[in-house]
C-alpha cells in the first residue's frame, strides 16, 4: 500500500447476518482498518466508507435483509457508489437475480456439493507480484500475483456485462470481477492468511473516493 | 495444497451465525430454507418422535435424503449411528454435505467412533465437554455441537454442555506449558490439540449448540454462552406455527445480543413444543458415545 495515511482513517462495515463475517473483520484489522458489524437497521445507519458481504448462505441473507429492512437501503447505497466487496454468497447477493447492483449473473453451487469444494493457486489480475517487480527479467514474466483461492460450494460468474472487468478465471470460468465500486470473488480470500485482495479492495475505496 | 480437513472446516465456517433445522420431508425442507435456515438435517423422524417410538433408530432411507437434496439449494446434512462407518459410506456415496455421527440414533459401536479422516465428506459430532470435543476432532470431526438432550424441548443440558466446554477452554488458556502435558493426558487427547486451545482460547473447529432449543430466547441464550450457531431439531416442526417460529429463531441468532429485537421476535409465535423435563426422561441420549 502506498497510502498508509488514508487506510487508518477508513471504516469498512461487514454484513454480519450469517456466515464467515468474523474472518473478514480479522483481515481488516490486520491491515489496520477499522471495522464494525451490521446485524440490523440501527447498525446500518452508522457511517462507513465501504461494505463487505461475506460468504454464507445467500437464501439466509436474503431472508434476513428483507425482514430487517436492510434490502432497499443497501441496494440504494451501492447504486449510489458505496464501495462493496462480496465473497461467495456475497457475489451472489450483488448479481442481477438478487440486489441487482452489478451486471453479472451468478451460477449457485456451480461446482456441486461439498465434495466439489476445492483449493487452487490462481492468478489475480490487478495485483502485480511484488517479488517479480524488482526482477530484471520481470517484463518476460506474468505481472499478475498468484493468490490462494478456496472455493466452498462456490458459485461462478455465468454472464457479465460490458462494464464488468474480469479479474480471475479458473478452468475457463470467471471467479472474480470488478465493476466500478463493486468487487466480487467466488472464492474466500478471508480464509487464508494472504491479505492482498483485502488490500486491493481498500485501494479501490481510496481511488474511488 | 489444502487438504479435505481444511475445506471441511471451512464449510462449517460458512454456516456460522446460522440455524440448521431438522426436516423430514422435501416440503419441510423448503419451508426451512425459505425461513432462512443455513442448512437442513434430513431425517425420517425428528428426535422427539424417535424418543416416543423407542426401539433401534438407524440412518434414514437414502431415497428420502435425496428427495430433500433435490428440494433445496442450501447444504443438506444427515445422521449416521455412532461407529457405523458403512452408514457413513452410504451418505458419502449420495454426496451429503455433512454427516452427523449422532447419539440421537442408536449407537452401532460402544467402543469406537468412526475414523472420520478416512472420508472426504465432513463430519459434525456431539460433545458434552472439552475432552469429548477434542477426541472427536482428533478422529477427524470438522465441526462440533453440544449434545444437549435431543427431542426434549428442554435447553438445560445444552446449557450445561456449553458452559462446561467454555469453562474448560478458559481453564486451559491459563495453564503453564508444563501443566498442559498433564491436561492432555487427562483429556485423553494429543498435546497439539490442547496447545491449540491454550493459544487460541477456542476449539480449532466451529462449535454449534444443539439439543432442546425451542424458542428464539433459547437460541440467543446459547449464542450468548458462546455457540457459533444453532441446530434446532424438534423445536420447529413440533410447534404450533413452524414458519413463524423458524423465521424468528433465525433472526434471534443474528441479533442474539439485542434484547429489544428478540422481544419483538418472541411475540405471537403460538404454541412451543410441549417438551419433557430432565427428570422425566427415560433415555439419556447424551450419555451415548464419549
Structure in words:
The complex is a heterodimer of chains A (209) and B (290). Helix content of chain A is 29%, strand content 30%. Chain A has 209 residues and is of the alpha/beta class. Chain A has a 7-stranded mixed β-sheet with strand order 2-1-3-4-11-10-9. Chain A is globular. The two termini of chain A are 16 Å apart. Residues 1-5 of chain A have low confidence and may be disordered. Chain B has helices at 4-15, 26-35, 47-53, 62-71, 85-93, 130-138, 156-173, 177-187, 191-200, 216-224, 234-237, 242-254, 259-265, and strands at residues 19-23, 39-42, 76-81, 98-102, 123-127, 143-146, 206-208, 230-232. Chain B has an 8-stranded parallel β-sheet, with helices on both faces. Chain B is globular. In chain B, 56% of the residues are buried. The A-B interface holds A 16-23, 39-40, 55-57, 59-60, 63-64, 67-68, 88-89, 108-109, 112-115, 117-119, 148, 150, 152-153, 188, 191 and B 1-2, 6-8, 10-11, 13-18, 33-39, 69, 73-76, 92, 95-98, 120-122, 247, 250-251, 253-255, 258, 261.
The number of strands of chain B is 8
> Pairing-aware structural class of the strands and helices of chain B?
alpha/beta
Strand order of the largest sheet of chain B: 7-6-5-4-3-2-1-8
Query: How large is the count of helical segments of chain B?
Result: 13
H/E element sequence of chain A: HEHEHEHHEHEEHEEEEEH
- Weakly predicted, low-confidence segments of chain B: none
Portion in strands of chain A: 25-35%
Radius of gyration of chain B: 18 Å
Strand content of chain B: 5-15%
Amino acid at each position: 500500500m502506498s497510502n498508509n495515511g488514508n487506510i487508518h482513517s477508513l471504516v469498512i462495515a461487514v454484513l454480519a447476518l450469517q456466515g464467515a463475517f468474523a474472518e473478514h473483520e480479522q483481515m481488516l484489522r490486520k491491515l489496520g482498518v477499522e471495522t464494525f458489524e451490521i446485524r440490523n437497521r440501527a447498525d446500518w445507519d452508522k457511517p462507513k466508507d465501504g461494505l463487505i458481504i461475506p460468504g454464507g448462505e445467500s437464501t439466509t441473507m436474503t431472508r434476513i435483509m428483507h425482514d430487517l429492512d436492510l434490502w432497499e437501503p443497501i441496494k440504494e447505497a451501492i447504486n449510489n457508489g458505496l464501495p462493496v466487496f462480496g465473497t461467495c454468497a456475497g457475489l451472489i447477493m450483488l448479481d442481477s437475480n438478487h440486489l441487482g447492483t452489478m451486471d453479472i449473473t451468478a451460477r449457485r453451487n456451480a461446482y456441486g456439493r461439498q465434495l466439489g469444494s476445492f483449493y487452487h493457486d490462481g492468478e489475480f489480475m490487478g495485483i502485480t507480484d511484488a517479488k517479480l517487480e524488482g526482477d530484471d527479467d520481470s517484463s518476460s514474466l506474468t505481472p499478475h500475483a498468484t493468490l490462494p483461492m478456496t472455493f466452498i460450494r462456490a458459485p461462478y460468474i455465468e454472464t457479465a456485462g460490458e462494464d464488468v472487468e474480469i479479474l480471475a478465471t479458473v478452468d475457463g470460468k470467471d471467479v472474480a470481477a470488478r465493476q466500478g465500486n463493486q468487487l466480487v470473488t467466488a472464492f474466500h480470500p478471508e480464509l487464508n492468511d494472504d491479505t492482498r485482495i483485502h488490500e486491493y479492495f481498500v485501494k479501490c475505496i481510496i481511488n474511488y473516493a | 495444497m489444502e487438504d479435505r480437513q481444511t475445506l471441511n472446516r471451512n464449510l462449517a465456517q460458512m454456516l456460522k451465525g446460522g440455524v440448521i433445522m431438522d426436516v423430514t420431508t422435501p416440503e419441510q425442507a423448503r419451508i426451512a430454507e425459505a425461513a432462512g435456515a443455513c442448512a437442513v438435517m434430513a431425517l425420517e423422524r425428528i428426535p422427539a418422535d424417535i424418543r416416543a417410538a423407542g426401539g433401534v433408530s438407524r440412518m434414514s432411507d437414502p431415497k428420502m435424503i435425496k428427495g430433500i437434496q433435490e428440494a433445496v439449494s442450501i447444504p443438506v446434512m444427515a445422521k449416521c449411528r455412532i461407529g457405523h462407518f458403512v452408514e457413513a459410506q452410504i451418505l458419502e456415496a449420495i454426496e451429503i454435505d455433512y454427516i452427523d455421527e449422532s447419539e440421537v440414533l442408536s449407537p452401532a459401536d460402544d467402543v469406537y467412533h468412526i475414523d472420520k479422516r478416512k472420508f472426504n465428506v465432513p463430519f459434525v459430532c456431539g460433545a458434552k465437554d472439552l475432552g469429548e470435543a477434542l477426541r472427536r476432532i482428533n478422529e477427524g470431526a470438522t465441526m462440533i455441537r453440544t449434545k444437549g438432550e435431543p427431542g426434549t424441548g428442554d435447553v438445560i443440558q445444552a446449557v450445561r454442555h456449553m458452559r462446561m466446554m467454555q469453562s474448560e477452554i478458559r481453564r486451559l488458556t491459563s495453564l503453564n506449558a508444563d501443566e498442559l502435558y498433564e491436561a492432555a493426558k487427562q483429556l485423553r487427547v494429543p498435546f497439539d490439540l490442547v496447545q491449540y486451545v491454550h493459544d487460541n482460547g477456542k476449539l480449532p473447529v466451529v462449535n454449534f449448540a444443539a439439543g432442546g432449543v425451542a424458542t428464539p430466547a433459547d437460541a440467543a441464550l446459547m449464542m450468548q454462552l458462546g455457540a457459533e450457531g444453532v441446530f434446532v431439531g424438534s423445536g420447529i416442526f413440533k410447534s404450533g406455527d413452524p414458519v413463524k417460529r423458524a423465521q424468528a429463531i433465525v433472526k434471534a441468532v443474528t441479533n442474539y445480543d439485542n434484547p429489544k429485537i428478540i422481544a419483538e421476535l418472541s411475540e405471537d409465535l403460538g404454541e412451543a413444543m410441549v417438551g419433557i423435563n430432565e427428570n422425566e426422561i427415560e433415555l439419556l441420549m447424551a450419555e451415548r458415545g464419549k
